[in-house]
Amino acid sequence: MNEAYKKLKKNIGKETFVGNWEKIDQTSINRFADVTGDNQWIHTDPNRASRESPFRKTIAHGFLTLSLIPKLTETINSKNNHYENARMVVNYGLNQVRFPFPVRSGSRVRARKKLIKLIPKKSSIEVIDEISIEVENKKRFACVAETVLRIYF
Description:
Blueprint: H1 2-9, E1 15-18, E2 22-24, H2 26-36, H3 41-44, H4 46-52, H5 62-67, H6 69-72, E3 88-98, E4 107-120, E5 124-135, E6 141-152
Antiparallel strand pairs: 1-4, 2-4, 3-6, 4-5, 5-6
């Protein structure tokens, strides 16, 4: 575990990952609304959104954007282990989340990850990353979240 900690520590303050673009379409938004029960018209009614919303389109739920972090950072891809020699990676939670910019239906997003802190534990390392969800061709991020993972060796 000491070797892993030393290796990770070199990356504190650095961007360690930029993901692939992922399209958030109306079908994804509707499916998320069905699962969560959040069927507010700004998400699920394209006709009304085109008339009444300042965005002129439906927008993705902030929590939909947040829920895509594992996919966008590829932490669910067992073939792409970001933590060499780890036997288990556990999502331990979030410290802070903000949604500074909406994601319009049909937009593409990707994640940028910056390692901001490491906390050694008895049998693990707590890894705190800043995840910024970028919207293609936009200056502002759709979501900025501080994620906490526990890496067990």
